[in-house]
Amino acid sequence: MQRLMKLTVLSLVAIGFAAGCNKKETEEQSSPAPQVTKALSTVVVPAQVQGKWKAVQIEVADKNAHLKKVYSVKIGSDFKLPGSDLTLKVETFLPHFVMEGTTLTSQSNDLVNPAAQLVIRENGKEIYKGWLFSLYPATHAFQHPQYGFTLVDYQPAS
Question: Signal sequence span per UniProt (predicted)?
Fold first, then answer.
């Protein structure tokens, strides 16, 4: 009799467990996929870098005209690209770019891994915000049907 009761209890537990698993699987199948949240990065310009750089040189390649021209763009200022509807703004320059978790910063004021944070607007609308790396120009390169952008030089503050 006890053996029969144990078998009955074990059977009920097994049925309950199986039903619970099926219910959970059904809930997982019917629930929407989890949302992936992209971690926002923070740019930190260390005191040893602040105010030490006044501009960067950006080479603009006009793919249609097969021409390249270098422009000096002051850090923090808007620059209207001649003959286009584009405005460039270098928000930040980091001479020794490093990424520490979600923080983007510069380890020193030495030109080890120069990077410029660039915002591009077309007819006033932001179409790109990202980084140009002089050592790795193809990394995260902005794709525009007519223009290409490359960080080529940097101008220290006087």
Answer: 1-18
